[in-house]
Design goal:
three-stranded antiparallel beta sheet, about 30% strand, alpha+beta, about 220 residues, eight-stranded mixed beta sheet
């Protein structure tokens, strides 16, 4: 399996090119979509200079890829490791209770993400791909969606459950439901978890995911 080790860049150069802000070979998502910056696999000094101009002084952006030296004109403001996991074949399963989420659900989605902190979720994150949710009594209690789309793969992201409803298997159900849509398009689901989030990693491995790569998230800011 050629699982992507530079997923943000290859998504921004491919399926998400229409969202990309571009200077030279450096690419980034609009800040209200996602915080990620993409640099090519063979990054050069010129790419770093273009990235600095693209991000802008006083702003920050995140790289997700194998750790690499960060030269001037950037400084590292945060660094942490993530585990990349890939789904087994034919993993997805349609969930009849899962509902599609869109702009009319955005306030509820933002509130759930703020409550559970599944990773970056911003006012335009729903433009990255499809989202599914589970509601009870009208309340959004769990959701999951799509983020990076490098060739042949789609990342499952923003998997979260209201703390009052944890322990009921909702995250696993939505992960499978989102995966079903990804597989229907002929792509392979994958996802990321912080290396320190042992509970999430244990959940995904129990669902059949296997570790494919160890990556780092490097948050940088132009000087």
């Amino acid at each position: 399996m050629d699982v992507p080790i530079n997923p943000a860049y290859h998504a921004l150069a491919g399926a998400h090119a229409g969202l990309a802000e571009v200077k030279g070979r450096a690419r980034r998502y609009p800040a209200e979509v996602a915080p990620f910056l993409g640099l090519p696999d063979d990054v050069t000094d010129q790419d770093w200079a273009d990235a600095a101009a693209l991000v802008g002084t006083g702003n920050s952006a995140a790289l997700m890829r194998p750790k690499l030296p960060v030269p001037d004109p950037f400084e590292v403001v945060r660094l942490f490791d993530v585990v990349q996991l890939v789904a087994p074949e034919s993993f997805g399963a349609v969930d009849p209770d899962a509902v599609g989420l869109g702009p009319d659900d955005l306030a509820d989605m933002v509130a759930l993400a703020a409550l559970t902190d599944p990773g970056p979720f911003r006012s335009r994150s729903i433009e990255l791909g499809g989202y599914l949710g589970l509601r009870r009594g009208g309340d959004l209690i769990a959701m999951a969606g799509e983020r990076f789309r490098p060739p042949g793969y789609v990342e499952i992201s923003a998997v979260c459950t209201d703390p009052r409803y944890r322990g009921q298997g909702l995250a696993g159900r939505l992960t499978r439901a989102v995966a079903a849509g990804i597989e229907a398009e002929g792509n392979r689901p994958f996802l990321h978890a912080s290396s320190t989030n042992v509970n999430a990693i244990r959940l995904y491995e129990s669902l059949g995911f296997t570790v494919s790569n160890q990556l780092s998230v490097t948050v940088v800011e132009p000087l």
